[in-house]
Structure prediction request, 460 residues.
Amino acid sequence: MKKIFIFHILLLGLLTAQELPFGTPKYFEMEIETNILQINVQVPSSFPLDIISSIEPYEFDNKDIYFIELQLNDNIPFHFKLINTPLPNGMTLYFINLITNGWVGPYSRNILQNQSSNVTGQMKSDRILIEYSVPKGTEPIFPVQELILPKRPENFKETLNHRDPLLRDFSNTILLCGYWPPSNECIRPFSRNTLTNPEGWVGENWENRGYNVISYFPEFTQPDCDDCGQGIGYFEVDYQDTSNDWWNIIDSLNPVAIITFSRGFIDYSWEMEWKYYNRFYWSPDFTEPYYPTPTPPDSTVAAETQRNSSLPMDSIVTAINSANLGLNPYIDYSDGAGGYLSEFMGYHGVWYKAMMDSLNLPCYTAGHVHVGGLIDWEIAREAAKVTLREVIKIVDEYKNLPGDINEDGVVSILDMLFIVFHILRNIELRGDKFVIADLNADLTVDIYDLFLISDIIINY
Prediction:
């Protein structure tokens, strides 16, 4: 029988998350029956500084392993905020969801030193086990400072603004990219390659929505791999291969929207990344030169410049929840998407969109989704479809150029004449043409719309 110690924790608050190398908690290899400390907590909460002294460590695999089980009063999303004090060499930290047997981690001394944030990935459970291991005989420092709530940045909405490009050689292609399973499996049906998708491409005029959806991803020797290695094919887990494949594919498709995917934490999360950085320092890949060349990859902006996702993230969260897939969808507001190939690919997506914006060409939305490693492949495919439908709604909203009444892809004097003739009652604009001409959306096409279309023509 377990010895149970109950501590009631103090309140506090804050936010954020980051992707990590693969590792498995020792908890799943050990037989644990006694002496696990249990704590009743609320969110937000802080931990006593001396809590580690209340724990008797287990000796396993030449490590001292400390366990604390947290029992939360509410099943709400939260993060762990870690201490800023340097932790021992050889330490490893996991946060295990005892309801799903998923986890966030491993966190190590090196990982924490290289991260700009000391906040873990988001979790949602009423039973969490903290596993903290240090080399045998090491004096431990408890690494967790507090439990915090997610907090949306004040400028979040501002970063989602979509530009209306003036010149629209409109593409009907949406690009999906993946890496490790299940992120490659969730988009496999959209591959046009019969070797990687023998069941056939389903992306042509997908669901009769007017868009061709095309996917690219690597293959791995063990399809359901954990520590997968570099892989083969498109988007190998290699900076140079990913970048070369990216620009070749982009140049051939000119996509109107981009969703990139990769595996996230080992859980059931559907995590949409908000921030991406033009990093100078990246985690090494598998093959020399190990890092991006050049680094930072984007020479058009300064190192560490932040770019943001423009995916309809709020609506995706709502739609995934409404689909009852058993997933935990959320937006990660933290500092970047991990500093590895996931963020590298995600940055390429938002970078390309920014390039198209600067040229007034259509790429309406781009962003990255981290897919939880425990998600069943079929469930992941359904979640990818739900995400894709929300993205298509956004593209549909923006593909009709305000003021382009004759739908020739530009706003010009010809469109102005339509409004003039309508005002003079020489013609009557109806249906879609009326909506496009009603630039101020006051349900009337009049002199004010004529002023607005004049401004568009002059400014562009």
In short: The first helix runs from residue 109 to 114.
